[in-house]
Design brief:
By secondary structure, the chain is mainly α. The protein contains eleven helices and no strands. It folds into two domains: 22-136, Up-down Bundle (A middle domain of Talin 1), CATH 1.20.1420; 142-175 and 192-323, Up-down Bundle (I/LWEQ domain), CATH 1.20.1410.10. It comes from Cyprinus carpio carpio.
Length: 324
């Protein structure tokens, strides 16, 4: 085997070292956030009942908490961008959340320094624990980080579709529950809160575009899960590009859904539809040119790209007839 691939065998000790360093890094990260959680608990307990801690005790706990905070922030600053921007963003946001909740706990202690356990102190302590628990659940590498972003995008698009379907199924008037039931004489003025048959035909076609967006995200998730690697910085960067592009899909789908509520403004719908198609085609283009798109994936990328264009043509045709 070594004769077939001597370079691979020669690099084996380095690969083993790389894996060892990654495991050590993960342990340091876990220990750092656990230390913050433990120090926050000690701090809260010290101020939960009289007598108040002495000045010496306050100095000691303050130094201990500060040490745990510095260790936690160092974990973020030591993570190089070459390990993945998506992973760094998740780590940054989680670190900031832990520090925000710790600051709230300190504020609660300073606001009621009487040595009694206040409701604000209890809630703030719980907030630190929850933030530390979420930190512990963070992805360990950029592949997992990108998958978590994509899964979140899939869920948001699914929610937007379900809300629209529920609004269509519940009533002709999606705003009926917020209107005054006694204003029956004002039906003429409330026509703008109803969907016409033409509106419903337009919405059905727009739902097709929203479903194509969701399908693209699910397929992309599968491709990243099955095909992605972290062996080169280029591959890691490609995963970051996919995550950044995918993040744009959910807001554009939300904007489209909002534009479909009565009174339906055709120009706003067309603008929102074009944005969804543009974002979706961008995601598919980046997918097609990345290492996660193997030969078996080309067919669905091309199919969904065609589906986006087909939906755009159908919607524009409906908008044209509605406007004439």
């Amino acid at each position: 085997m070594s004769a077939d691939n001597p370079r691979s065998d020669a690099l084996l000790p380095v690969r083993n070292l790389w894996n060892s360093v990654k495991c050590s890094r993960d342990r340091v990260r876990d220990e750092a956030v656990n230390s913050v959680s433990q120090e926050a608990t000690k701090l809260s307990v010290m101020f939960s009942k009289p007598p108040l801690p002495s000045e010496e005790g306050c100095v000691k706990i303050a130094q201990s908490v500060q040490k745990s905070v510095l260790t936690l922030t160092t974990v973020y600053f030591w993570l190089p961008k070459s390990q993945g921007v998506t992973l760094r963003k998740l780590l940054r946001d989680a670190t900031a959340q832990v520090l925000d909740d710790l600051a709230q706990l300190l504020q609660a202690l300073l606001s009621s320094p009487g040595g009694s356990l206040s409701q604000e102190q209890l809630m703030s302590t719980g907030g630190v624990w929850a933030a530390c628990d979420r930190f512990n659940q963070l992805p360990k590498d950029n592949r997992s980080a990108v998958l978590s972003v994509l899964a979140s995008c899939v869920g948001l698009v699914k929610d937007a579709l379900e809300e629209m379907e529920q609004a269509l199924a519940e009533a002709q008037d999606p705003f009926g529950d917020v209107l005054d039931d006694d204003d029956e004489d004002d039906d003429e003025g409330n026509q703008d809160t109803h969907w016409s048959e033409a509106d419903r035909l337009l919405i059905a076609q727009c739902q097709g575009l929203m479903k194509a967006s969701g399908a693209s995200l699910r397929r992309l998730c599968s491709a990243v899960r099955n095909n992605s690697t972290l062996e080169t910085e280029e591959n890691i960067t490609q995963l970051d590009d996919l995550a950044d592009a995918a993040r744009e899909i959910s807001p554009s789908v939300d904007d489209l859904a909002l534009s479909l509520y009565p009174p339906v403004e055709r120009s706003a719908v067309e603008m929102s539809v074009c944005k969804v198609v543009c974002v979706l085609k961008k995601v598919l283009e980046i997918t097609r040119s990345s290492h996660v798109c193997v030969e078996a994936d080309v067919s669905w990328v091309e199919f969904l790209n065609s589906a986006a264009e087909h939906n755009l043509e159908k919607i524009r045709s409906l908008l044209l007839h509605c406007g004439s």
